[in-house]
Structure formats: structure tokens, C-alpha cells
Amino acid sequence: MGPLAPTSSFRNAVSAFLFFGILLTGWFPWQSDNLAFAQETAAKDDQDDQSTDDEIVLETTFDLKTYLRENPLAPPDTSSPRASLESFILLMNQAETVWRDVRIKFYERNERFLSDTEELKLQQVRALLDKASGVFDLSGIPETARDRASLEIVLQFQEILDRIYLPNIEDVPGAAAGSFLNSKAIAELPERWTIPGTDLVFERTRVPGAGSRFLMTRESVAQIPEDYELIKAFAPRTDNGDDLYAYYIYTPGNLVAPKWYNMISAGPSWLGRHILSQAYWQWIALVLLTVIAVSLPVFLSRWGRMRAVPVLESRRRLRSLQLPILIIGTILAYRYLIEDQVNITGNTMVAVGAISTALVWTCLGWLVYRIIDLASVWIIRTPVGVGQPMDSSLLLTALRLLGLAAALIITGYGATRIGIPVYGVIAGLGVGGLAVALAAQPTLENLIGGIILYADKMVRVGEFCEFDDLSGTVEAIGIRSTRIRALDRTIITISNADLAKRKIINYSRRDQFLLRHTLGLRYETSESQISQIIEAIRSYLEAHEMVAEAPLRVHFVGMAAYTLDVEIYAYIKTSDRNAFLATQESMLLKFMEIVHSCGADFAFPSSTTYLAQDGEQEVSWPPASPKRQQDTATGDRQTAA
Predict the structure, then answer these.
(1) What is the b/e burial string over 64-75, where b = at least 16 CB atoms within 10 angstroms of the residue's CB?
(2) What spans are recorded as compositionally biased (Polar residues) (predicted)?
(3) Nearest Cα to 471, choosing from 496, 440, 503?
(4) What's the rounded Cα separation, in Å, for the pair 606 and 354?
(5) Which of 114, 366, 506, 571 meets the CB 3.0–4.6 Å disulfide criterion with 548?
């Protein structure tokens, strides 16, 4: 079975499902022809066959049982065309013997399931069949369906060999199976050998790490199903029982049909008819199981939308794991029922395997992304340490990138499992890397801009900043853009590349607030009052716990048009704007109290008009000098005398 097939824990559920499905259709007969078949096959196996295959086995000096016992993991001998063909025949003869023995004994007992001993023997049969597939070049079959497809190829090829005349084994190029020729002897062999009367070719193939091997070519492997369809109508050269391939594909179960199949075989005859390498009952089961498999995730998705959304973010993320987990579990159960119970084979099995494998790996990547997303919520909520606040936005973005990368890697690996050359596509991107880089330049620029924002620590989420002509609180820094909440509560979205180029004033990074005010006193304020006001304010600031010791300045700085200016310059020791505003408010009220207590007041824009009345003197221009004016006045007095 493929790597996605579940364990045998589904057997009871599957049996109940098929049993009730059959009861609904009204099939109640329980008779079976399998026992008669088993007894007939046992009688035939007791006879000594004189077939060409048996003669080949007798002529060889290769001890198969010893070889399998001492080298259970060793591949078949494919060092020559003869060794490949002979190894295949030896392995298949042993597999058929054990397989038929298990089937006969199972149907002779009145038990529903195979015994542990029979299960162990079937495992040996599967190992022999898998080892026999080593003489084929199976690289043309998608990896996800290779296990099942190789089993079918092995059985079809065996049925072909049973219906054609093989040459004397000594006439086939190479040495007997088990010789394992060295590289020099292999080099002397022909490059290709074709089975007489067929188009099936064994060709020298370079196997990485194993040197040259003679395997049946990919083209010949692809031709085997067609050759079998042409030759299956011919009788075998010797009567070895039923067609093992036909028994395998048209019966449920894995190599041995379960006894619930008796109900199907005893039902309407049309259920056993074949179309597209499947029996009618297999098509019906495939459709029903597909409908159920599709309905479950759809039902869960709609049910999830009708439920109330959790308030906690972690609960919402945890709920998002349900759908991918259900899809993966449904597909695994679906594959188990389709492959191990209904036993869908051929191209249909390849298509189902490819689609289900693609869905499983895609959902697995989706699940990993969701798990990392959930972990990010828990990590962000966990304190890192005293005085070391965590940059949640940076961590969240980093974890999302990690989750996205993990999901892409998992999905890409899944694509290789169904035969998509993802690594070749990635390598091809290197050739067109320049075009891709130019096309993705804005995206890369924004990504690098975001990295610069994080690396230089210009801004963080929650900080109030001014960016040239706009200002607001940073709400999120994403991969491409940054969102800012303006003072009017609107959202401003700006690209990271543009933001990194702007002048940024970060008000949230201030460790202290500047207190700078100018008190405008009236011109009627005397010098002593000004000195008294300055001294009182300075003493108040020096004694205040929120005021930094330096710089601290209170000075009379100038005389304006209508005010006498006293400047106050100090720093308030807080980074909280609200705390600063409250402190500043109390200080300004205190400054007003000090000014009023000193008998002074604050100036406001005003003007003073001075009025005077001039005497009736004759005005001359230009006015005379003071001495001349005095002389003129003396002369006037003398004249008057």
C-alpha cells in the first residue's frame, strides 16, 4: 500500500458499512463459490507441472529460499537479461505458492478475518512481489501510486509469461540468477535484449549507486497493460488456477478477498461485470465513498460558520486547525477504504492516489502554517523578561514568514510525490531569475523596506510618529506595507519602501518632555517684582520631583512691544504624554499663583495715548537753535522795556 494508507483498525467499521449497504439493497444470500474454488485449486497444486517455467527453475542452481532468508532486503539479481528474467520467475513462483496456500486455508475456516499466521504469510507474499518489481524501470509512474501500480505490473507480466513461449533459459544473454556478475562481465553483454515474439525489452540501465543493471524499459513497462489486455483471452500454457491479476483487481481486500465479498458475489450478476478495469460494484462504492469524503469537510466548514466566534484570539486560531485536520483524516480513511477494501486499481487508482496525495500534502502545509500561527499568539502573550518588551509585530511577521516557508516546502515535497518536478522548476527559475527579480522589484523593495524598519528600529507598533505630512499611531507593520491610525481615526496605509525614505519623528521614543513657556508681564511690573517672580519660580522647579536637575533655566529674556518676557526652560522626567500634560497643567497654575502673589499681572495687547496742549507760538522752519532762540527772547524783552 502507499505511504498514506492507515492501519487495519478500520476493518470493523468497513465491514459494518458494507454489510448495512448490502442489506439496504435486499441481498440476503450467503452461499459462496470460493470454498469450491479453494478445494479445486488445492487439488491442482498437488500435481507436478511440467511447464517451461518449472524447467527453468529446475535448471538454475540458485537457492531462492536460502537467498531470501539470508538477504531479505537484497534486490533481485539484474546483472544480466537472464538473471533479471530468471529472478522474476523464481520470485513469482514462490509468491504464488504461498498466496494460494493462504487463500485456500482462509476459506476452509469459519472465521471472518485472517489469522496472524496468514497475515504474516501475506506480508511475505507482498515482499516477494515488491522484490519482483525490481526488474522493472518504474520511474515513469508517479511515486504516490508506484507501490500499487508496480504490483499490478508484476501480476500482469506474470500472466503474460504464462501465455507465451519462452526460449531456453541458457539462450538468454548472461549468467544464472544469483551469479551477480562483476562490472567487466556486464560490460561484455549486449545493451538490449527483447523477449522473442514481444516488444518487451530488457535494457542496460545506469542505476545511481548500483552501477549498470538490466531492467525492463519504461516504454516496455507502459506497454505491459496493453499486452495483457490482448493476451488475457488466451488460455495459459498450463492450468495453474485462476488469473491472479483478475482475481486481484476484481475482488476487495488486499490479495485475499474478505468473506463479506460473498454477499456481493451472491447478488445481482451485473455487479460483477467489468468496465475500465473495475467491476460495477467497485464503481458504485467509489462514487459513494467520494460523496461522503467530500461532504464531511463541507459540512464542518458550514457548521463552523454558524457557530459563535470565540472572543480569545488563541481560541480562534485553535479552531482554524479543525478543517485541515478533518480533511487529512478523511482522505486517509478514504484511501484506506478505496485501496485496501474496495481495491480500486489501474488508471483510476493512479488518478485517485495523485489527487488525494496532493490534497493531503497541501492540507498538511496549511496545517503547519496554522500551527505556527497559533504558536505565535502564545509566544507573543508570554513575557520575555523584565524590562525587555517583545516586539510583537516583528515576531508575528517573522513567524508568519517561517510558516509560509514551511508550508511551501511541504507542499513542494508533496508535488514531487505525484510526479511534478518542483526542483526542476526551481532550477529553471535561476535562468529566468533576472526577469522574475525585475517583475517582483516593487514587492522586494517593500520587503527590504520593512526589514530596514525592523533592523533600524525606527518605529514599532503602538508608537505615535510624524512622517513628513502625516502623523498618527502605528498599528501594524506588514511584509509590504505599514498601517497608521491618524488623529481623525482614519487608517493610512503606506508602503514600507516609501516609509523608510521619509523623515520620521517618533514622539513615543522621548524619555523626557520639554517644558518651555514664556510669561509675559505688564510693563508696570517693577524690577524687584520681576526678580521676586524669577526666584520663586526657580525655587519651585528645583524642588519639584518631576523636573530634571539640568538644564533648568528661568530668566528675564526681553522686552517685547507690550510685555516683559520671563522664559521658563526645563525637562519633565516622564515618557508618558498624559503624565506630562497633567504635570504641566499643575505647574502653569502654580506660575499664575506666583505672579499674582508678587503683586504683578500678565500683559495683554494694549496701547497708551498721551495727550498735551501746545502754546500759541509762531512756528518757523527750520526751528532755530537753542542759542538763537535765547537771543531772540532777550531782544524781545529789551524791546518791550
Answers:
(1) beebbeeeeeee
(2) 631-641
(3) 503
(4) 91
(5) 571
